[in-house]
Amino acid sequence: MTVSIKDVALAAGVSVATVSRALAKGPVSAALKAKVEAAIAATGYRPNLSARRLRSRHSDTIGLIVSDIRNPFFTAVSRAVEDVAYQAGMRVILCNTDENPDKEAMYLRLMQEERVTGVIFAATRATAETLDAEALGFPVVLIDRAAPGGAADAVVLDNAAAAGLLVSHLREQGHSRIGGLFGNTSSTGAERHAGFAAALAQAGLAAPARFVAPTAEAAQQAVSAWLAEAEAPRALVISNGLLLLGAMRAVRALGLELPRQLALAGFDNDSWTELAGPGLTVIEQPVDEIGRAAMAMLLERLEQPQRSTRKVVLTGRLVVRGSSLA
Amino acid sequence: MTVSIKDVALAAGVSVATVSRALAKGPVSAALKAKVEAAIAATGYRPNLSARRLRSRHSDTIGLIVSDIRNPFFTAVSRAVEDVAYQAGMRVILCNTDENPDKEAMYLRLMQEERVTGVIFAATRATAETLDAEALGFPVVLIDRAAPGGAADAVVLDNAAAAGLLVSHLREQGHSRIGGLFGNTSSTGAERHAGFAAALAQAGLAAPARFVAPTAEAAQQAVSAWLAEAEAPRALVISNGLLLLGAMRAVRALGLELPRQLALAGFDNDSWTELAGPGLTVIEQPVDEIGRAAMAMLLERLEQPQRSTRKVVLTGRLVVRGSSLA
DNA sequence: ATGAAAGCGCTAACAA
DNA sequence: TTGTTAGCGCTTTCAT
Lengths: 326, 326
Description:
Distance between the termini of chain A: 72 Å
Oligomer: homodimer
Structural class of chain A: alpha/beta
InterPro entries (chains A, B): HTH_LacI (IPR000843), LacI/GalR-like_sensor (IPR046335), Lambda_DNA-bd_dom_sf (IPR010982), Peripla_BP_I (IPR028082)
Strand order of the largest sheet of chain A: 2-1-3-4-5-11
Domain HTH lacI-type (chains A, B): 3-56
Pfam families (chains A, B): LacI, Peripla_BP_3
Organism (chains A, B): Chromobacterium fluminis
Strand content of chain A: 15-25%
Keywords (chains A, B): DNA-binding, Transcription, Transcription regulation
Mean pLDDT of chain A: 96
Number of strands of chain A: 12
Shape of chain A: elongated
């Protein structure tokens, strides 16, 4: 039925050890190696990775746990991670948690059962706070959101600075009634809010903010309601690409003209932001770099399990488009 | 070091078989089951999935091979597939081929080595034509693109009809100089072109068409060049979401006003299409249904390996927006 | 350089 | 219901 290394050995007239060595590029004479290769071709043999992992005790697999792969930010990061991983001979298991702590716990358990080499993880705040990398049995690199107190390695954006960049830009365009919309499950939302609030405080301005579930629908609803109020902001900072999508839908539904009636600026240079309305002003995250840096940190951590945790902080780039211009 | 079922058995004072049964919800008395669970908690035991797969001879894993997860169509399909799969207790391996036949071959080999239960595969035309599901050793369900002659199960859109829908719509809006842009690597592009050409032929009109690599960049370039020509079309049908993105960038770069100077209609109701310009008229694919149907077909095929191959043809829905209105 | 043999952690006969 | 035992296919000593 299924052909094993034993069948190959038999067909080649060598021992299973020799076949294994030939496969692993170990010390095998050219003559035997040729015989083995012929036998593999003749039998149609394919190594069984489960057996290999069981015996060799390394899975060469990393887990990538994100909230939702439909978010273009995570899609882009995951492509970068996968490309690097496959080049390094590692597989990637991708999981979507929908920002649900129960699912996060479930997938972390799965990662243990898969005996993964390591995990790259965009955790909710709740999980990041209680994460115990020691107990998990594999290294974890957090992306997008960091753990408090440097409990784990992390690759993040300088969220506060980026939010400040957006506020400064809107101020330069003459805005003073600036509101902010943020996600309520991640530390990222909190950090961006902090930067937003600090920048406005420094300017002596109020910093009205709202927090919503991290979905386009929630954002659309929140923005619609907010803009209908008497003291509605004239400019809006939106904390991520998903929320920005919802905000933009609200703007369209209300028939508002950007930037005349409302200035809009947000996070994530998703491909559509350049095409919507007059183009949306956004903070571009270095998504490829985030993926690469996370993989690199994971590999470093594997080599030096004891070194102290690090946080790589990357800088966002302000992309100015029509939605925020005076 | 790593705790195995043996350690649990020892701690619980039972045999390894009893632990295994307790884990598999086999016949175990409540008393022993409690002891086992206590021992698992005490030891922090986690089953080793590699060992389980090796011994049980089923991986409970399905492979999902797409061209590029950054394409929102595949992102959406993959989410649907994963949700169904995880509910059915299966894990998913996701691979990106970038429409590269070498990568396709490599990942199919990987699937064999993982001893996957089955594969859902968006193949290039080249690979679909030579696909031999028998030799692979696992069932394959093609998505988005079918194999000629029904060589494998498939879930596809009625591409020709959908393209016809777009042409009819543009005709109704009074257009007669209608051009089409299609991808050059997939059967999907070919089918959409066929439907496009047939619909225009029936109307007694010319059907100028161009074929490009399936990237936004190639589309942008092709559209820019085409619209600069003397006999440029006044309406454009674009074969998928990625190409549509490129086309839209070209439109913006040229400063064209939709739909006054150019009518635009295409495939894939990606979230941005409602926000770009006056909103883009598109064919919406039932992405969730595609994912679900593919998983369902895979499971059916596993139960009935011998039944003849089937092709599930789903219907696209025309979503009319401003980009194509007279 | 090659082979014999042990055993990774688990499930599935088979016995009891 | 429970325990004993034989492998699943592979890598890795340990000999030779």
